[in-house]
Every structure is written in structure tokens, then in C-alpha cells.
Amino acid sequence: MICDFHLHSNFSGDSHEDPEKIIQTCIEQGMSDMCFTDHQDFDFKYEKDLFTLDYNKYFEELRTLKDKYKDKINVHIGVELGIEERTAKDCIAFAEKMPYEFIIASTHLVDGIDPYYPEYFGEYSEDEGFKRYFEFLNKGIDHFDNFDVYGHLDYVIRYAPNKDKFYNYCNYIDIIDEILKKLINKGKGIEVNTAGLYKGLKQTNPSKQILKRYKELGGEIITVGSDAHVYTNLGYAFDTIPDLLKESGFDYYCIFENRKPKFLKLD
User: How does DSSP assign 17-56, residue by residue?
Assistant: First the structure.
């Protein structure tokens, strides 16, 4: 059993999925726990307020559903917070507004540009775009601590013209090692995000190489998320995750309860 700790509902600007449908689908898949992690990103220039979370309505609705389904599944209320050096103060203030049970920090914007949009790789070659992304992520970690795991650490490769065809962690080993060491020193985890698999990649985000390296450097905290924005992607390819994690050196994965990791043994 793998619990999905990266899920988006219609509280995220890029999803139209009903939260109750998400919960019901997680129950059908036999999950004991699941976590909503709807988006908050500051200064998203493409569509104003697209990723501005109405956290009061969010908590009001999800607390009602949490209570309604408490005998069938543990519903956790989290957030995916897009972090940047320039918006660090906003992120710090936002994270303290509500009692989130789990916070994913992610990098979506690099110099204000989301690699999802063609202009990013119109400006950078693939190699330059990958390197710039990791540099930006690295700086963001220096300015924000109030999170639990780092999400889809090599997110940028999802949207490269050749996706992961020519991507190799070893080409960026110095800066990725620096990122992983910082996360470990801060007591933070990373997630295995399966969205890349349904977006045309041959691997999860991050790659197995990065998962192995995180473990080699002393990392222990791993969560698993589908990053689903529609209910049909919930738990996507989770049947492959135990073997992936074992091959990367892990015997456990984590869920979070009130910002504390709980280690669950892999079958």
C-alpha cells in the first residue's frame, strides 16, 4: 500500500477536480492516508492569481470532508508552495497562516519563467535550462526552511524538448549534491513524484540516480505522490514504487502527520 501525498483539486488553478471525488478514489485504491497539496505560487506572471490558494475556503471544505470520511481514510491538509529567493518572505508568511499538516516546497518559476511554457526552452538550450533550474532551486532553499519535503526535484525535464532522452544526473552532480546535502542538513525529505511517467518520461521525478544519491548522503525521508490534477491519475504507477525505492536503498517511505514523518515499511 502506498499513500498519495501530492494531490491537486479545484482549489488549484490548474485543476477542476472535486475534492470529494479524490477522496473516494483514494478509498477505492485502498489507501489509509492521503494529502491534498494544492498550489500557492507568488508572482505567477502568466495568469494572475492562477496559483493563489484561498486557504480559508480550502480548510473549511477539507475539514468537513476529513470528518465525513474519518472512518474510511485519514485525510491530511497540506500545500505545495512554490519557492523562490525573491518571494521567500511571502512564502514564510504564507506557511504560518494556517495549520498545514504537510508542506511541499517546489520550484516552478526560474527567473519568472515556468519551464512548462515553451519560452523557457526558447531562451535556454536543454543543458543550460537544466543547469539554471538547479541553480535557482539551490538558491531558494537557502532562504526558506518551513517545509517538509522538496517536490519533483528535477521537474524541469518534464518539459524539455527531448524530455529525459539526453538528461543525465551525472552532468549536474556537483549542484545536485549540494542541494541534497542542504536538504539533509535541514532535516528535509524529497518526494518520488510519478507524474513524469504519465507525461512521457521514462522515470519518476526525481530520477533513480538522485534517489540513490540522496540515500548515500544520509537522506531517509521519502514521500510518494502522483501529482494528480485529475482523479484518474491518482496513485499512478504506485505498484512500481516499492521496487524503485528498494533498488535505491530504502526500506521505508513516509507519510506526514501534523508535520512529523511517519515511516511505513515497504512490502
Answer: --HHHHHHHHHHTT-SEEEEEEEE-SS--SSTTTT---HH
> Distance (Å, rounded) from C-alpha 153 to C-alpha 172?
13
Strands 252-257 and 260-265: antiparallel
The percent of the chain in helix, strand and coil, each rounded to the nearest 5, is 40, 20, 40
Peptide bond into 206 cis (omega under 30): yes
Q: What is the SS3 assignment for 252?
A: strand
Per the structure, the count of domains in the chain is 1
Write out the residue range of the structural domain in which residue 67 sits: 4-265
Residue 86: all three cell numbers together: 525573491
Tens digits of per-residue pLDDT, 94-136? Answer: 999 999 999 999 999 998 899 999 999 999 999 999 999 999 9
Q: What is the rounded CA–CA span in Å between residue 254 and residue 244?
A: 15
* CATH number of residue 28's parent domain: 3.20.20.140
